[in-house]
Every structure is written in C-alpha cells, then in structure tokens.
Fold each of these.
Amino acid sequence: MNSRDLKLKSIRPEILTTTINDAMSADERFQNLVLRPCIKMQNDLLIAAFRNYIVKHKSVFYGLNLDKRMDYIENAIQKDMKFRNSLKGMIIGVFTVEDYVVYTKNSSALNKRMMNIVKDRLLSNIQLFEKPDLLATA
C-alpha cells in the first residue's frame, strides 16, 4: 500500500456502530467499511457544496417549508446529474486505490448506496441550511 493510501486510511473516521459479518453482501461490506467512513470524513465539504448549490439555484430553497426542503435535497441529489457527479467525486477522491478497484466492479449499485447515504446525511443536517444573515436582509 502506498503512502497516500495509508494516510487516507489513517484519517478516516471509525464508525463504532458498524457491524460486519459473513452474511452481508460484498456491496454492504463496502458500504460499511469504505463508503460510510469516506462520507463522514467529507461531511463538512458535502454541506458546503449543498449550500453553494442553494445559492447557485437562486436561493429558492429558503422559501420552502420543511417537507419541500426535504424534497428539494432529494431531487438535487437524484436528478441533477452535474451536482450528483460532483458529490460522487468528493467521495471517490478519498478512496484508496484498492477501494477504487472494488468500486469499479459494481459502481452502479455502489453509487446508489453512496447517494442514499449522502442524502440521509444532508437531511439529518437540514437545520444547517437556514438562510444566511447576509441573504436575510436582502
């Protein structure tokens, strides 16, 4: 393993609630051992990216009620391919070479898992997407 891979693995957060057993599928194992830690590590970047997405889309998000905001987040991740690909890149960029090789074998299914986790993470942080004070006075 090269030094980049060692450094990446050393800074990944450990998720203590993760359960690994022989009965789980390879995709679920990859999700728990690689995707979840990588997404958790990139949490602040993912939040910043979504804040930027809100602003680039004329801050429509701020005028929505909670249910519509949740739909907005889901639609942004599922339907806006440019944004979705950007999010995927933020996560894949912290894969080790070994992780990437495993990922490429079943990227379609793993992308679905990845985006669902990202969506859940953004939804659980929805309170962070309140209108900034600069926009509140405008």
Amino acid sequence: MSATLVIQSHRDPLPFDWLQACLDSVAAWARANEYDYRFIDDRLFDLLAPDLREKNCQQRVIASDLARLRCLQQGLAEGYDCVIWCDADFLIFKPRDFILLEANFALGREVWVQHDVRGKLRTYIKVHNAFLMFRRGNHFLDFYADSAERLLRLNQGRVAPQFIGPKLLTALHNIVQCPVMESAGMLSPLVLRDLVSCQNDALRLMQQQSSVKLAGANLGSSLTLREGIGDEEMEAIIEHLVTKGL
C-alpha cells in the first residue's frame, strides 16, 4: 500500500465523454507518483448519515461536498498518511508541475473571472474543494466535516450549491488563512471560451491574478452545458491545456 491515496468519484456512466480525459489525467498522475488511486461511483453517498442522505438527495452537489470529506476521513482511518480528492472534471495538464505542498492540508485556488453588473470583467479570488489534500495529524478535516454536517442539519429547505463547499471554505480561509495549492485552479466559463476563441481578455485577467502558473484545474462540468460549451469545444480545450498549458 502506498502512503498516499487519490480519490475521485462520479455517477456511472459519465454524462460527458470529455470527463474521461480528466479522470485519466489524475489516475496517470497518481501512478507516476506511485500513489494509490480509487474511483468511487454513487456508493460515495453511502458514507452519509441516512437522514442527511435523504434530506439532500435532490441536491447531489451538496451531498457530494460532505460525502467526499467522510471518504477522505475513511482513507486516513485505513492507514494512509495522505489523502487527496480531485473532482471528476479536474484535469491535471502539467503533471510534472503538479507537486503537493509540504503542509498538513491544502485547498484548491479559485480565481474566477466574470462580468459584473456593468459588464466589466472582474476576478473573485477564493478557494475551492475540487482539489483537497489532508495528511495524517491535520486538525482541519474533522473540524470542516463536522461543521459542514452541523450546518446541513440546522438548515431548513434548499441551500446554495456551494453552501458547504467553496462558500464555507472561503469563509474559513478568510479567517484562518488555510494552506492553498495555488497550482490547483478552476476555470470559469469565460476563461474556457477564451481557450477556444480569438479572445483572451478573461484568460489574461485570470493569469494576471494567479500567483503561479496552473498545472491542474477544475473545468466546471456543471456549468459548461448551461453556458453552451459543448463536448467538441471541451475536447479542444483539454487538448490545448495538455499541449500548451496556460
């Protein structure tokens, strides 16, 4: 058994063909570093308490945000020294530069580019949970998981999709300054569009606001279809990232 476990999860079959390239990139990175790799389908949700599973069955993103934390806790309980989560739409396109922090835990970096109410491009710098890393002995994972579960139990009705994910993590980060894996980014739809068009305003702004060059990024499968970015465009984006980077 390796000292490190990398975990990914998604329902099976995959809803978009291009997701397989993302999964393959993470699995290949894990193999290259001699990490154990584990893919879990909807059995991921079995790790939730029955009442929370039922309460959030219509909001799979919310359920997944908590279930991944319980899955990571399980990995540490199995004896791994380090556990890593990557979303199924997380692409490691520069694997040699995707090097783990020497920290007890780390979150991903979100430099989100979108238009404001006046139509001007703006960046919103936060953290995200599409990439998570926790080493044995860290105190943050248990606190975060228990806080997320408590908030879900207290809340009545539907909540924002990012309620216990990026929103809660960013609020905590703003107070305690969590370690951040700056090379583990997230690409907004405007940045994705720039990668397959002659425009580069959003891409340039994201690059200017990023502290390092990205080596991996979440590609936002929950937004691509809604934003009209089809499979062929996503395949072209992945090809561009793998061959040219950002």
Amino acid sequence: MTNIISPDFNRRLALAGLFALPLSACKTMDIGALEGILGSGILSQAEAARGIRAALDNGVLSALGIVGRAGGFLNDSKIHIPLPKILSDVQSVLATVGAGSVLNELETQLNRGAEKAAPVAKDIFFDAIAGLSISDAIGIVRGPQNAATEYLQEKTTPRLTSLFSPIMENALGQTGALRLLDQVTGDLRNIPFAPQLGANARSDLIGHGVKYGLDGVFHYVAVEEAAIRRDPAKRTSEILRRVFGSV
C-alpha cells in the first residue's frame, strides 16, 4: 500500500523549505507518530523524498559552481584558505631575508588549487543524495535548519577527504604551490635558528587544503539550503514546486 503524506506534513516540509521546522514542534514526535498522520494527503513519501533529493541536487550544483570558479576561494573572505599556522608563523623570518613574498604567492596558489579540486566532488555528493531514504528525509525535517548540509557532511566527508587528497595534490602541483613550498623549506634551512617545516610539509599542506576546501563547499551548500527554504524562485522543477510550493 502506498504511504501518503498529509497536507499538514507537506506544509511542514515546505516551511522547512529544506528543513526549518521548529524543533519545539517536532522533538516530541517520533517516526511512528509521523507515520500516524499519513493518510489522505497529496504527496506520497516517495514523492516527498524525491523533492528533497532534487533540492539537495540544486544546492550542491550551486555551491560547486561558486567555489569552483576562478577566485571562488581566493577572493571570498568567507571561505578564503589561510596558510597553515606554521607557515604564517615563519613569514616574518622569511621577510628578513627578502623572501616573504613567496608565502603570499603560496597562499594564492593554495586557494587556486582548491578551486580546481572542488568540482570533482559532484558525483560523490550526488551518490549520497540518491541514497537518501524516507527515514533520512524525516530526520532532516525534524532536524535544525542546516540539517541537509549536516546530512551531506556526515555521508560524504570521509569519501571526499580520500578523493580530494590526490586531486588536491595534483592541483597544488599544477598551480605551483608545492614548488613554492619547497622553496620556502629551502629558504628556512639557510636561516640560522629559523623554524623548520619538517619532512611532512607537503602532506600537511595538502591536508590543510583538503580540510578548508571541503569547509568552503559545505558553507555554500548551507547557504543554498537556506535560499531554497525562503525563496520560491529557487524551486526550479515540478517536484520542487509540489513539495515546497504550499507555504
């Protein structure tokens, strides 16, 4: 028998616009209680889950489009990737020998590397979204306003980290960031009493870029999630309008 979502439940989904249902209104309701209100409404569970998947697809595409373009990280103060602390700490040391500018360039190329690497996340995001079940959808409705973003972070971060590491390494090589890091390492060896970066400097820089790169992607997934919630113009397909159009 097909389970049907009642108009009231549909309105809850819509008010969430992705997930802004007040916790006070739902924290006392378990999944059984939610199932108890299913009956004569206009949307099936499958249709509601499909609408949420469509909204998440839109959110991911928008976020990757923002961060994956030239200047997407470099020129955006919200997600700009800083140098790792050990590098920022030695900047004044390098400045004393006229090499401080190399770290400015390294920071630029670190951000350029993230811009190159971010778009490859698309398929992993879409795989996670495709696996969203009706139980996941109910959990999103019952969760905080960024519940969809949190869902994606939980489902994708380990795989994205594994994927991004070699891709980020390649991107940092293409932009010249790793070459600049080698130059910094060499410069420091020639300065008495200067701090040294150590044998893991490259892997540390790559890991730093991966972490901040993913943070930037998820930041804009959350921004798009909020936009879908509040803006009917963001509901660009029939299923989105059906699920979220009855606010």
